[in-house]
Batch of 2 targets.
Target 1
Amino acid sequence: MGRARGRGPGVLGLGRAGGGSAADAVLLVVSELFTNAVRHAGGVTGFRLEAGPGTVIVVVHDGSTVSPQLVPLDVTRPGGFGWHLVQELSVDVRVEVHAAGKTVTVVVQCPAAVTSQG
């Protein structure tokens, strides 16, 4: 998880001035998607970042055919906030279930993003 999170800024050009909270949002989304894949789906089988004008697309593949579910928020128990965070920080979230598992594609607004692929 740390490797993917650490890779994002360099690949997307987010390390320079202006990345700010949008860059933090991208990194948080990457971290949450990886954590969810590891905890609930047997691990990550693929990962891609794409930057375009004003957005970053995060794509995570895993081997589970079970779609992520929002669980009721409960501050008295640990966990259960990740998928809510992904939904809140993103302008588009898509889950595609296929024979080999699923693909979660998330679009995050990020004004500092540059055209690059990772």
Note: The chain has a mean pLDDT of 83.
Target 2
Amino acid sequence: MLFSNLKLNNNESIYIQIKNHISSMIDKGLISNNSKLPSTRELSQLLNVSRNSVVLAYEELKSEGIIYSISGKGTFATSQNTVLNIPWNINWDTLENDYSKIANNMDIVKSEIPWRSDLISFKSISPNGELFDMEELKKSFLNRISIEGHKILNYGYAKGYKPLIDYLLEYMNTKGVDTSNKDILITNGFTEGLDLLLSSFVNKGDYIICENPTHNTAIKIFKALGLNIIGININKDGIDFNSLENTLSSLKNKKNVKVKFSYITPSYHNPTGIVMSPENRYRFYNLMKKYNIAIIEDGFNEELLYSSSHIFPMCSLDNLSNGVIYIGSFSKILFPGLRIGWILCDKNIIYKLESVKRCKTIHVSFLDQGILYDYLSNGGFEKYVKKIRKFYGDKFNFAYKCINKYIPNEYILGDGGLHIFIKLKNINSRLLLSKCHEKGVIFMPGDVFYIDNNGYDTLRLGFSRLSFDDIKKGIKIIGETIKELAVEI
């Protein structure tokens, strides 16, 4: 390709034309320093000229220090290109769009205190990897490769790996969901699912209703897409339904206000850990139905329901309708590194989302989907869930008792799961975090979960990856520090 634009003529010696062409290419930086050139035989055949002409050209270039040869290895360029060494600096700050600015400004990985091995960190609500059944996962990997062969390493389908889709449809059936008019799209976890859905159905300036506080990543996506967020406060009794009904009533007759969606996490809500009662699920569903506002249900950590019998997801109330879109994921309990989630909703919606998915990322890794399907379908998942329910249940109960004993608070929220939410008595959690950090303890300040700059006196404690000793030690340090701050105030 380097010589495709070399057109030889009869007005000048062949070797001079070859020499000048190579010299020009090197000077422009199109042949970089130390790049290997074709052998004289190869180049003569390529240009259909005498090999002697190429030899003469190379000799001239060597004498001028433009190329050099190494015995047994070949001939190489010596580039002294000056154009490429001239700095070229684009001011990317001026080109950055609002989406990037919001994503960067709200990136808690960059803005919050980072994890260190010498800290007792209550920040994470990720699963404890020590509980993963690695032997079963290895078997699933080998089994899928054996069954699918090279096919599973090639391009897949935007909707997802069909055996996994079929498994998840049946899985949702066990939760009381009639999937006869529903379908599933596999996503790269919850985050892509929510972004994919909203990118397909909202416009900048549309409105969305959500709990306040709510999932920080959801807030980030809402704001990055330019949505107006209507927050419904959560207090010690859960979501404030009186406020919700008043808000819906007041918005009904407002011009230029289009509420496209409501976003809700009924089970182990992040960050409060509250599990919404069956009665309140009915109440919320019927309110959204009354005002014709589609529901996005975050199926967060439903599998960890160890404090009571199974509570149906909200989408099970919508069986023959199309008003609820369920986004599921196992990421907070199982193999988050696989980044696999799913959207369950009306078939017509999935049909549209499939094309958007294909436009954005084509498909989720078929190998990862195949491995997960094999693991889920061989019975290992049921055993794993039974094990982690007890493991995390014991940790939750222990942490809850420690908080009650050591941390002065206005109230504690949490029905289980992997975290507990605390409202303090007029103590700034940011100041508390700074003081605790000095003592080797960090946590997630609650304000990152609020849409309206509230929550300055709240915090979330994640305990999934901590030992019982560290849970107790860390909570005691937080409690002692709160008492110190209370004296100062």
Note: The chain has 17 helices and 16 strands.
